[in-house]
Amino acid sequence: MIDATPDTGLPPELEAWLAASLPGLDATEDVSWPRDNSQVWRVATPTGPVYAKISPSEADYRREVYAYEHVALAFAEHEAPHLLATDPQLRTLLTTPVPGRVVRDLPMEQPAERRAHELAGRLLRRWHAHPALDEQQVRDRVVAAAAAQAAEAAQCLERAAAVLTADQRTLVAQVASDLPGLATRLPIVYRHGDNSPRNWLWHAPHNTLGLIDFQMADHGAAVDDLVWLHGALWPTRPDLRSAFLTGFGRDLTDAEQRALRLYTARLAVSYLTTGLTEDNTMLVDRGRTALDHLVHAAA
Q1: pTM
Q2: Best label site of 119, 167, 207, 234, fewest CB within 10 Å?
Q3: What is the DSSP-derived secondary structure letter of residue 112?
């Protein structure tokens, strides 16, 4: 991370760039996520607020700039931020605000919550509708990634077998054996890459939803964008699953439904194994709970 100046809280290079790019620079607020590689500021100007972001890496920067080209064509200003300016040397993006509050941990009545998830499904379907320049190249990457995840699942199974139930061991073994083959049959789309309620903004006055944070966006398997929801939220809230898929506007294929279960199981057993290695009870519980849900859903 770049050190900030005490007056504005901005890195000096960013402050100078913003001063040259904006009609005026008033108050700033650090709105970064609580992790080391997140650097985002809300910047007040005479014409309204904007957001400045320093991408964690060159790859993140390239992905996000490309994503904003898609946003400009496919989304209204209340549905996603729009790009105002960039600086490749600073890896900085300047974007418009989106109305609303982050859905994660936002107290919501169930009708509003279901509406938000239905709109999230609609937005994701439109996000996915951006064709790849070389679908076979993307397919090869998806299959290679699935093979790597299958190998990881096999290692996790060996390390965590003693704390897994028989059904859980069977499920993780299926990840190791079946995931690469399934990956050859999955629909290829333009993925958001981090599709979860922490990147959805609910604007209660107008009942609208916005989508943010595009640094992980890339072409890949559509079900990648559903893994977090399938593992962490939908098991206890089938109404939200139904609402999301209604908005999504299409049924998952048989291969997608099976792959989604296996991708989620791979993530869950990875959490569990990491938690055991690091003596992290939270990760162990998260992994075990997700595996329990997956097994019981198939019973």
Answers
A1: 0.92
A2: 207
A3: H
